[in-house]
Amino acid sequence: MEKFEVTILGCGCALPTIRHFGASQVVNIHEKLFMVDCAEATQLQFRRNKLKFNHLGHIFITHLHGDHFFGAIGIISTMSLLGRTSTLHVWGPIGIEQALQPQINIFCQGMTFNVEIHPLDTKKHQMIFEDRSVEIYTIPLRHRVPCCGYLFKEKPLLPHIRRDMIDAYNIPISQINNIKLGMDYICPDGTVIPHTRLTTPADSPRSFAYCSDTTYKPDIIPYIENVDLLYHEATFTDEEEKEANRYFHSTASQAATIARDCHARQLCIGHFSSRYDDESIFLEQARTIFPNTVLAKENLLIPLTIEH
Amino acid sequence: MEKFEVTILGCGCALPTIRHFGASQVVNIHEKLFMVDCAEATQLQFRRNKLKFNHLGHIFITHLHGDHFFGAIGIISTMSLLGRTSTLHVWGPIGIEQALQPQINIFCQGMTFNVEIHPLDTKKHQMIFEDRSVEIYTIPLRHRVPCCGYLFKEKPLLPHIRRDMIDAYNIPISQINNIKLGMDYICPDGTVIPHTRLTTPADSPRSFAYCSDTTYKPDIIPYIENVDLLYHEATFTDEEEKEANRYFHSTASQAATIARDCHARQLCIGHFSSRYDDESIFLEQARTIFPNTVLAKENLLIPLTIEH
Fold first, then answer.
1. What is the pLDDT of residues A148-201, one digit of tens each?
2. pLDDT single digits (tens) B240-283
3. Level-2 CATH architecture, domain A4-157+203-303
4. What kind and span of H or E run contains A268?
5. Which of B21, B44, B51, B274 best tests the A interface by mutation, with the highest count of A CBs <10 A?
6. For chain A, which residues make up each domain, given as ranges?
7. Chain B residue nearest residue A109, CA to CA
8. A56-60 and B24-29 as β-strands: parallel, antiparallel, unpaired?
9. What pTM was estimated for this model as a whole?
């Protein structure tokens, strides 16, 4: 199966602690890397997880708070020192250009590659990028500053070829792609073998939604319906719901409620406030509502698997 | 003895590695903290070493390369989240205001304290700060961009009081500070006890010089004559002297030569290029010229002790 996996580089909150790095994740879709958020020290975590700078084409920033953004200039500067040539795309709320471009101008003289900055209207749910493997959409969130999440939707995959049938009919390799694309095979004697006989159905395309930082916002549910993996912030435990509301964050149960109501397959919660030493309470509270929940932690790799 | 010690938070070079953080050190002089350089992730290292944000009054930036500066906005932002009220002074080459102030404006809204930015002429050797414990001077260095080192000179200390004599003459505590300041003590019967009889000589004031990044520059020697501790960059081993010249860096032997010729008591070398897996070669080469050399490493604490 083609790769679709999420690596958590950091899942802490605004105040860095010894325990957590600031927010950043890397989504690997068919060996292309997409970064979501880029806190200070993200480049160190990126290296620690043996990810490849050359495979990273896009950085998506959810909002312009330091704990989601301060690492961007560092990773860009490093890629320039490494002699990168391919364009890097940086996406984020309106204002991101003013936050990033002057830093690039000052610190990346003799830059070896282009950085294309794409300011986004965070209030819209829209497709902002697609290639042959994936479509990427914004998810409007509600925080103290303009903020959006990101939805990664794998495009429909090709069916699997049946090795046994290929052998049985002695079909040349040159025909395999055509068969996957839906063409029947015509044998040298004129017999037509329908492509459905030569393949098993494609895997279902998978999807991942990243929702942080945000207050509880159930109107995002239609956008993230049936996601295979939902990452949703849970800055506070249920006991601190007032604090959560006040700072436009969510509680563990609110994150789990979103996961349940959008019929996610799996939930990962993170962005824990630094006030908590023991994070197991988050897990208990979330699992009461949505059992298939895991706690984010640094260097956790979550593969998006398919149930057959 | 009053505290004078240096903690190394990071001693890597431009390209961050798993092994090293970017450049930053904290100088503790009589419990006041002075930071020199502030690479990405410095605030994490600062916490890891259990240093106190409230004791940090000054950040000195040597030059505007990311591996010496990218952590400044993060630490400032964190101190604001922590509700700091006292002014923070940030010193650095001309241009530092343009590099830092816009970031503060964007990311530190509702800032709880003032940041005073002091642009410096890096070509001058001058005293830029003093308080009752220390004088701080710039050291003109030569790098690819304007760059200066910093010299921390402890002010003359008061003599030590002789407990035995105080007891013998039954001198009240209220007089002790006067005696330290050089006043003789007059006994109730009119006898004059000279202050020199009541004290032992003060410890010699200590000094620390931070010289990074720079090409070999022997004309700094008069400024750093007799320093107790010299931190000097050694980005390359002696075999790569050409590379060192090309990028305006120093070799291990060049750093040691500066230490020898300025009659430093101790040398610490760092800023090792990421190309070296084994840094012991730096130590060997430097010790050939200046035996009292140590290798910088993260979280190394170097107390400046006095030989009596």
1. 999 999 999 999 999 999 999 999 999 999 999 999 999 999 999 999 999 999
2. 999 999 999 999 999 999 999 999 999 999 999 999 999 999 99
3. 4-Layer Sandwich (3.60)
4. strand A266-270
5. B44
6. 4-157+203-303, 170-200
7. B65
8. unpaired
9. 0.93
